[in-house]
Amino acid sequence: MNHSNESTPLCFSINSPPFNYTHTIASAYFSSVFSALGLTFNLIAFVVLLKSFPRTQSRSHSSFLIFLCGLVFTDFMGLLVTGSIVVSFHFTQFNWRRLDPHCHFCNFMGMSMVFYGLCPLLLGATMAMERFVGINRPFARSTSMMTKSRAVSIVLMVWAGAGCISLLPLIGMGSYHMQIPGSWCFFKISSEASDMAFCLLFSLVGLLSIAVSFLLNTISVVTLVKVCCSQDARQRRRDYEVEMMVQLIWIMMIASICWCPLLVFITKTVFSGSPLRIHYLLLFIRFATWNQILDPWVYILFRRAVLKRLYPRWDWSRGSIRSTVCRLTRASVGSDPLGGGDGGVLVKEEGKHQSFNEKAPPSPP
Question: Residue 64: which of 278, 223, 291, 72 has the closest Cα?
């Protein structure tokens, strides 16, 4: 069927269905299994997090669990929305132009791809900021009172920010287009002014979120090691904080490995002005989607209750994690990791303000 340029909607102006696409069983089943596994893993992780709330007595741990619930819910909905569209196309081979003559459906999927793509990265950076303040500025954090309602508000603000970015192509900054092989829509990656601006915005927001997470998590880990290795007997136990940092580090690593190839590819394509290589785009998009499948395993596996069952011979008594971190650190640096005066000042300052903080909770199971 031929269509004139005047009658072609914007989202079909580059790639207009029907495509010469050979339907394969492998592609249909790959998308189905891929989506089903991701939805199942995220659902299990969400149940695990909900069961952890009643046993949590620390305010910082409760806030962290709220952020994790927001991340799990975002990953689940992202797979549900985009996966259902892709799987439906592979099994039915519907014609987008007949089903969506005004591009509303295509714009919705493009917005979903951007929204559910940026949210995990922004939430990861937000959790890194929360842990940075909680570990490095405990007195300031206790004064600001990070309550559960405030944590929920922050998650909603992150969703609102990602939603606003996804709406920009609808008001002229960039545009959403049908992508080969016709099962999905995404923003146009080109060197044209408006498209270039949105491509760079998407890439830079993602890369900046990863960079912020890496920087703040590194500082938090160094500070936590210093505090954990202190010889001050009055220092409160920080095993649950070590557990949260381990989970956050894994979240950051998974996001970096899965998303950096796509973000760098978009930036490189825009600046080089070269034609879009659709095969690389499809490869990196699928690679980025693995983030939504691997994330839940961080919450499912990296908990003390699970690790105690996997490694029952280890010493999981109260304070054991602190002792292990301290021993490994000293072995790696060959000296006192506190480095003299700085560590002592940190411990003294924390002890000075300890009375303002909440009572130390018992170590989680």
Answer: 72
Residue range 122-133, pLDDT digits in tens: 999 999 998 888
Please report which helix (H) or strand (E) contains residue 184, including its range: strand 184-187
Say if 241 falls within a structural domain: yes
In a domain, 347, yes or no: no
- And the tokens for 75? 């990953």
| Residue 296: cis peptide before it, omega within 30 degrees of 0 | no
* Residues in CB range of 91: below 8 A, 6 or more apart: 28
Domain count, the chain: 1
Q: Which domain holds residue 275?
A: 10-310
Does residue 328 sit within a domain?
no
Distances (CA, A) of 163 to 112, 238, 288, 337: 9, 36, 19, 44
CATH number at residue 207: 1.20.1070.10
Sequence-distant (≥ 6) Cβ neighbours of residue 227 within 8 angstroms: 135, 235, 238, 343, 346, 347, 350
Q: Is residue 29 part of a domain?
A: yes
> What pLDDT is stored for residue 341 in this prediction?
40
Q: What is the pLDDT of residues 290-304, one digit of tens each?
A: 998 888 888 777 666
